[in-house]
Amino acid sequence: MTATLKPRKRLRLSTVMDHIVLTLGALFMLVPMLMVLQLSTVPDAEIIQRGPSLHIGDQLDDNFVKAMFEASGFSGKNTGVSMLMNSFILGIGFAVGKIILGMMAAYAIVYFRLRFATLAFWAIFTTLLLPLEVRILPSYEIVQSLGMLNTYQGLIIPLIASATATFFFRQFFMSVPEELVEAARIDGAGPVKFFIDILVPLSRTMIAAMFIIMFVYGWNQYLWPTMITTEEDMYTLVRGIKQIIQVFEGTNLPEYGRGNLLALIAVIPPVLIVVFFQSWFVKGLTESDK
Amino acid sequence: MAVVHFDAVQKVYPNGFEAVKPASFYIEDGEFVVLVGPSGCGKSTMLRMIAGLEEISNGVLQIGDRVVNDIDPADRDIAMVFQNYALYPHMSVRNNIGYGLKNRAVPRDVIAAKVDEAAKMLNLSDYLDRKPSQLSGGQRQRVAMGRAIVRDPALFLFDEPLSNLDAKLRNQMRIEIKALQRRLGVTSVYVTHDQVEAMTMADRIIVMNGGVIEQIGTPSEIYQSPASTFVASFMGAPPMNLLEVTRADTGLRLADQILPLDLPDTGAELILGIRPEDIIPDPNGPFSIMVDIVEELGAHRLLHGRLGDQSVTVHVPKDYTVAEGVLRFAMPIEVLSFFDAASGQRVSR
Ligand SMILES: Nc1ncnc2c1ncn2[C@@H]1O[C@H](COP(=O)(O)OP(=O)(O)OP(=O)(O)O)[C@@H](O)[C@H]1O
Ligand SMILES: [Mg+2]
User: Fold this and answer.
1) Domain for residue B348, yes or no?
2) What DSSP designation does A255 have?
3) Are both A52 and A145 inside the same structural domain?
4) Other residues' Cβ atoms within 10 Å of the Cβ of residue A175
5) Contact residues, chain A, for B79 at CB < 8 Å
6) What's the confidence (pLDDT) of residue A1?
7) What is the DSSP annotation of A48-100?
8) Chain A nearest CA to B86, separation (Å)
9) Which terminus of chain A faces fewer neighbouring Cβ atoms within 10 Å, N or C?
10) 3-class secondary structure, A137
């Protein structure tokens, strides 16, 4: 008998089941995307006639050029590129703003002996019950009276006060050992230095997680940008796609192919953000030793 | 380097708990003082008041010639080593050690030189670019030490720095810390509940109990002449034997014997204290104990038994053969301590 006795790999039922579930899940998520992709390769007329099919047309590059570089409105400013740009500014501004504000609020609540700190925290927390949709009229009124309609500030600032981020950072800060704070105090780190040198780097996994969630959330905003931006060069993708598909001019068909492709393009940045930050996130989790 | 002066320093926590009763004492320049006592006796509170991490409720605390009651920890010229090391997890060892200097706007090349010097002193030179999570417990402890020594502070504060290490490493680090302190000559206050650490490291020991300082003295003073029954039973392993004695016309009665001693009669009941190793087995000795258990400890043996109805421990060398049963012994009168049974305070002879 030879010494090479390899343990036989047994295909276990649970492994098979896991893969079936995962495959089904993946298909469930991917098939609609592939359908949209297919639909953006065929002429718009064919979409109306045949609906989704397995036919791959030749309109993809045509649609791509239209989607990215051709304006759909009157002003000629809302090209795909500019809408992508605006969406990025909204998504990043929204996420970064929420993180900065949430961290600073949590820092104040956890580390400073404020009177009514707990009360303040719960007051912030209850604003979870008041999402933008509930307070949209007063918010609009304020933005308008500040003259911030059709500006990035107007788009972003009213959205960045975040109970969620404050809450998560508060929980995280409370888990930072007291000794660390004291060591930093003795090492001569004042409140600002402690925040920047110690707390922010320690929070990086938390920041990455928040960034993923908040960027996607901001990117997908629809109602608020629709209200605040009336000028076409301020349109975001999510809002702009709607317009492309809506336009019915005389006998012209809506530009389905172009809209579909733009919808696909709109999915890519959030996916990239998740993929990129996820590796960071996992690295942070395994490296820290708290 | 500095002296530390406590003048009726008291700590009352906001919830009204008096963790440290007004304490007054003086720590000499370059002295290594160990604060020892059972859990919850206020050692950490005392140390944290020196550090400035805890507000002083009453009294005056002076470091050097400055009253520091209202001075920020960063400006007290102290460095502290924490029980759980409190290293910054995201910084390399180098940055951990240098962080305090960086915050004080020390030029970069000076920081680098000082960090290198400290690392060499602590055998950390090979680890400077690692993160704390990549170090062993002993190495982390050294980094925490390094962070303290690069600052050249006037005062080192240690709060149970070795309690997370295993026994062997603890012995080694104990010696290293003591040697380092000797070499640098920096006044140090060291909190521990380990009496071996207290005895071996201290120039002077402060024994605390329930927020009160029971005794301040050199290790041998604390060991030989404990100021109270608490100190007698807290310091020393096994602790001092404490035996009830009654007064008789010719001296003190212990079991069926009279000790020919002339103590001033205050009318109080007395307790006699004797260290286990001061009890000398002697076939012709006046006292006898019933030995119940012989505890074999290698270098020596401990005999646990009863003298009348009081339990007694005797420490005998390893070459002294004993069996369970009756053991006769003698007690040199000079080594006996006496305490007031009611107050527990030492009675001078
Ligand atoms: N923030 C606080 N508020 C109220 N009481 C406190 C506070 N911190 C500590 N105490 C109490 O003060 C007493 C002394 O605490 P301290 O931490 O000084 O004890 P210690 O001697 O260091 O004990 P250990 O050996 O367990 O560390 C304890 O009884 C503790 O419960
Ligand atoms: Mg303590």
Assistant:
1) no
2) -
3) no
4) 9
5) 186
6) 47
7) HHH-S-S---S-HHHHHHHHHH---SSSS---HHHHHHHHHHHHHHHHHHHHH
8) 5
9) N
10) helix
Q: A178 is written with which tokens? A: 């007291």
For residue B238, whether the previous peptide bond is cis, meaning omega lies within 30 degrees of 0, is yes
**d(C-alpha B189, C-alpha B27), whole Å:** 9
Residue A74 binned pLDDT confidence (cut-offs 50, 70, 90)? low
Q: Are B115 and B150 in contact (CB under 8 A)?
A: yes
Q: What is the pTM of this model?
A: 0.84
pLDDT band for A180, please (50, 70, 90 cuts).
very high
Give the whole-angstrom CA distance, residue A209 versus residue A169: 11
Structural domain for A20, as ranges: 8-60
Same domain? A108 vs A239? yes
Q: Which of B141, B84, B138, B92 is nearest to B115 (CA)?
A: B92
Is the Cα dihedral A93, A95, A98, A102 positive or negative?
negative
Q: Which two tokens stand for residue B315?
A: 């420490």
Are B214 and B250 contained in the same domain? no
Indicate yes or no: CB of A201 within 8 angstroms of CB of B86.
no
Find chain A residues with C-beta within 8 A of B145's C-beta. Answer: none
CATH number of the domain encompassing residue B144: 3.40.50.300
Q: Establish if B347 belongs to a structural domain.
A: no
Check whether residue A35 and residue A159 sit in a common domain. Answer: no
Residues B165 and B265 in one domain: no
Return the residue whose CA atom lies nearest to atom 30 of ligand 1. Answer: B40
Pairing of the two strands B58-63 and B4-12: antiparallel
pLDDT at position A289 over 50: no
- Closest CB to A186: pick one of B74, B89, B132: B74
A chain contacts of residue B103, beta-carbon cutoff 8 Å: 187-189, 193
- Ligand 1 pocket, residue B42 CB under 6 Å: yes
* Domain count within chain B: 2
Q: Give CA–CA dist B240/B278, Å, rounded.
A: 10
Half-sphere exposure of A217 (CA within 13 A, CB side): 21
- Give yes or no: residues B213 and B297 share one domain: no
- Residue finishing a domain among B217, B234, B251: B234
The total number of structural domains that make up chain A: 2
Condensed to tens digits (0 to 9), the pLDDT of residues B212-248 reads 999 999 999 999 999 999 999 999 889 999 999 888 8
Q: Which atom of ligand 1 lies nearest, measured to the CA of B46?
A: 18
Closest residue by CA, ligand 1 atom 12:
B19
Q: Which domain holds residue B86?
A: 4-234
- My answer on whether B153 and B252 are in the same domain is no
In three-state secondary structure terms, A222 is coil
> Tokens 């001296």 map to which residue?
B251
The pLDDT tens digits for A203-234 are: 988 898 889 889 999 999 988 998 888 888 88
Checking DSSP bridges between strand B280-281 and strand B4-12, what pairing results, if any?
unpaired
Regarding whether B290 and B153 lie in a shared domain, the answer is no
